[in-house]
Amino acid sequence: MSHLTDIMVSVGFPDQPTVEALSRWIDEEAPVRGVGGPVEGRWVGNLAETTGPRTQWGGGKAPGCVVFAGTLNHVDIGGLLAHIASVPWRAPEVLQVFVRDEYDTVFQVWMFQDGRLCPMIGSRAEPPAPQA
């Protein structure tokens, strides 16, 4: 049985390599929901760039932003957000993380404020705790 979580990460151009590294971390080491860490042979997914030269949005012009997105399976959301908070972003004030868990109807939006990854209006007050 699956448990899907939609993730979008929007960053400034200087952080494109950083979000690419985040995608590799998700691909190789992301914690699994209910386990609290990676599980050998259990892949939760990764992120793909949605704004690169091989993508197209409506309007006929290239996007002026960097957005990576993915649908992850059985990811520990608290562990993922904790990892994102620990990454040395070049421009953390620009980072936006959009999270929509399987049974949510809207995305939760997370941004850095005063050095902490915080929920924005309409989001949960605190991230789910990483599962151990």
Walkthrough of the structure:
- The protein is globular, with a radius of gyration of 14 Å.
- Strand 4 and strand 5 form a beta hairpin.
- It has two helices and six strands, in the order βαββαβββ.
- It has helices at 16-29, 77-86, and strands spanning 4-11, 48-49, 66-73, 96-101, 108-113, 116-119.
- The chain has a six-stranded antiparallel sheet, with helices on one face.
- The chain has one domain.
- By secondary structure, it is an alpha+beta fold.
- The model has no long low-confidence stretch (mean pLDDT 87).
Secondary-structure element series: EHEEHEEE
Strand proportion: 25-35%
Question: Which regions contain 5 or more consecutive residues with pLDDT less than 50?
Answer: none
Apparent shape: globular
Task: Determine the N-to-C terminus distance.
Answer: 20 Å
Could you give the topology of this structure?
Elements: E1 4-11, H1 16-29, E2 48-49, E3 66-73, H2 77-86, E4 96-101, E5 108-113, E6 116-119
Antiparallel strand pairs: 1-3, 1-4, 2-3, 4-5, 5-6
Short description:
It contains two helices and six strands; from the N terminus they run βαββαβββ.
Please give a handful of descriptors for the protein shown.
6 strands; about 130 residues; alpha+beta
